[in-house]
Amino acid sequence: MKLDLHTHCGEATCVYTPTLDVVKRIVAAARAKGLDGIGITEHYNKAYGFKVKEIVDQHFPGQLLIIPGQEVDKRKLHVVELYLPGDTTFRFVGHPGYPRVEDLTSEIDDTIHGIELRNPTHDDEMDQAAIRKAARKHNLLLLQNSDAHFLSDIGKYYNEISIEELCARAS
Ligand SMILES: [Zn+2]
Fold first, then answer.
1. Which of 46, 91, 95, 102 is least surrounded, with the fewest CB atoms within 10 Å of its CB?
2. Which domains does the chain have, with CATH numbers?
3. What is the tens place of the pLDDT at every residue in 142-157?
4. Distance 94 CA to ligand 1 centre (A)
5. How far lies 17's CA from each of 26, 37, 45, 51, 114, in Å?
6. pTM attached to this predicted model
7. Burial of 171 (0-12, 13-18, 19+ CB in 10 A)
8. Separation of 108 CA from ligand 1 center, angstroms?
9. CA of 58 to the centre of ligand 1 (A)
10. From ligand 1's centre to the CA of 57, what distance in Å?
């Protein structure tokens, strides 16, 4: 599946209580890029993604997989959480290198399952060699996501991955 696992649809639309019209625009933007699904990962806001999922399931069934999530700070890292079927959570580091960390590997613990290798907004700050090293050390899935703050940016980067693979790594 083509999945963009890090998007800020609330910030992109400036509407924090998703309406049918807003959700229609989100679904259209993701489908225009050929995506099968998106993670909806507002900052410190789980409810937004779950509400979007509810509206999609009710009004646009089967058109786009919605994975509710949120983005939170964890020490010096930005961590994106995805709430998966079976009550499990997949966590990955968003744009490692922004904010800057001295030793990426030592910031990561075993609650983390993945890490972004590419992010269109922060590629310049992301040291791919350091990210690959941290990923090897902690057995992390390498990801690339849009981190979209505009609907037109959804799907700028995405992953070819199955939900099963995310679930298998989640805790
Ligand atoms: Zn983000």
1. 102
2. 2-169 (3.20.20.140)
3. 999 999 999 999 999 9
4. 7
5. 13, 20, 11, 8, 29
6. 0.96
7. exposed
8. 18
9. 27
10. 24
Please say whether the beta carbons of 13 and 27 come within 8 A: no
Q: How far is the CA of 63 from the centre of ligand 1 (A)?
A: 24
* CA-derived radius of gyration, the chain: 15
Instruction: Compute the mean pLDDT over every residue in the chain, rounded to the nearest whole number.
Output: 97
Residue 128 has pLDDT above 90, yes or no: yes
Closest C-alpha among 1, 30, 35, 33 to residue 13: 30
Q: Measured between alpha carbons, how far is residue 154 from residues 55, 83, 103, 159 in Å? A: 19, 19, 30, 12
Encoded amino acid at 108, one letter: I
- Give the Cβ contact number of residue 33 at 10 Å: 16
pLDDT tens digit string along 25-72?
A: 999 999 999 999 999 999 999 999 999 999 999 999 999 999 999 999
**Which residues are paired to 131 by β-bridges?**
none
User: What is the 92 CA–ligand 1 centroid distance (Å)?
Assistant: 11
Which residues of the chain form beta strands (DSSP E)? Answer: 2-7, 37-40, 65-74, 77-84, 88-94, 114-118, 141-144, 159-160
Identify whether the C-beta of residue 143 lies closer than 8 Å to the C-beta of residue 166. Answer: no
Tell how strand 2-7 and strand 37-40 pair up.
parallel
